[in-house]
Design brief:
mainly alpha
């Protein structure tokens, strides 16, 4: 099946998206397929979340405007996160300016969070300062930021900077990122000894309120690796 036939198949059977998506991603970006999907979306034959997902899989620039509009329309059902990722898939780093602008300028939390998914999709360390700034200015929540930063491969100096900051919010962010790097199933590189020493010093003070399980994990790891 070619790209247009695959789009037609998923329009007829929405549940087939799990099979169709990877096949579309393996093909070159197809303008005609993107336009066929957009027509189906405008006729309400395909819901926003599925349109955004498939536009990202097709990967053609013809779908960028529609994916961005889905993100900004805030239709719910996880469409925002699919749309943010679609922008990054379609334009790569060229989408970052739009995604950053949405994170810092849009007043709707779900839209900002959807854009953040797109910014983190390529797992590039260059965007880590953007996430830290978004956390400091309360544009993105703690859990999202810690996961996205972990995805983007922070170096030890970034974690040490957070852990040694005088702001308790940033200390807790650094701990959360370290916890993800150490025990999630994301295939991340664990932090090194400099982070362990800094975390040990911080956790020994017992001045911050941590999740008990995370506190125990980090304390044991830091004590063994400092």
């Amino acid at each position: 099946m070619n790209a247009i036939e695959l789009i037609d198949a998923v329009v007829e059977d929405h549940a087939s998206f799990k099979r169709v998506g990877p096949k579309l991603e393996a093909m070159p970006p197809d303008e005609a397929a993107a336009k066929r999907l957009i027509r189906a979306y405008k006729s309400e034959s395909v819901p926003p979340w599925l349109t955004a997902y498939l536009l990202g899989c097709v990967g053609h620039a013809a779908g960028y405007k529609t994916a961005k509009q889905i993100l900004l329309d805030n239709p719910g059902l996880s469409a925002e996160s699919y749309a943010g990722v679609a922008l990054a898939k379609i334009r790569g780093t060229e989408a970052y300016r739009d995604l950053k602008t949405i994170i810092f300028d849009d007043e709707r939390p779900k839209v900002r969070r959807g854009a953040a998914h797109g910014l983190a999709h390529r797992r590039e360390s260059d965007v880590i300062p953007v996430f830290i700034d978004a956390f400091r200015t309360k544009r993105l929540p703690h859990n999202d930021v810690s996961w996205h930063i972990a995805q983007c491969g922070p170096d030890d100096s970034t974690l040490v900077s957070l852990l040694s900051n005088s702001d308790g919010r940033e200390q807790k962010l650094g701990c959360a990122i370290a916890d993800i790097l150490l025990w999630s199933d994301g295939g991340f590189t664990p932090p090194g000894r400099a982070v362990a020493r800094c975390a040990y010093s911080l956790l020994c003070r017992d001045s911050l309120a941590f999740n008990k399980r995370m506190f125990e994990r980090l304390s044991n790891w830091a004590a063994a690796n400092r």
